[in-house]
Amino acid sequence: MKHVAGLRTANVLVLLLGAFACGWFEKVAARAENLLSLDAFSVWVASPYFLLLIPVVLAHSKKGQVALLVVSLLMVAGALFIYYDTMFVHLDAQGGLVFLFLPLWQLLAVLGVIVTVVVARARARTAANPTIERDARNSSARPSS
After folding, report:
1. What is the secondary structure of 59-125 as a DSSP string?
2. Among 37, 109, 120, 144, which residue has the least CB neighbours within 10 Å?
3. What is the reported pTM?
4. What are the b/e assignments for 121-134, b being 16+ CB within 10 Å?
């Protein structure tokens, strides 16, 4: 259990640093005077990282936490690379659209991760308690046809 808690802490730190770094890129791109101010667009850019905290809290196995840590690292590193490339390497008038669409695609991916974790937890709970499935099969409550 100690390893799971350490992995969970690492996941939370990676996600919080990713949210902060992506928010910083957004503020620099917007040429904001106060880089620590909070507005709706900053919340939009950081929202996939905060939403990914849900499966981090729900996953209780070491294997699940390792998988989530890999997903978190890939998501943060990929986003930072794309933001850096858009802002400093390939300058384009439409480059700012990355702050609109990248969080959208990340949110869709995070929803897939959440569904995967919820299904995995339900299957693990059913496997650990086989009476749930047996009781459901033997129940007299049948759906009407």
Report:
1. --SHHHHHHHHHHHHHHHHHHHHHHHIIIIIS--TTGGGHHHHHHHHHHHHHHHHHHHHHHHHHHHH
2. 144
3. 0.78
4. beeeeeeeeeeeee
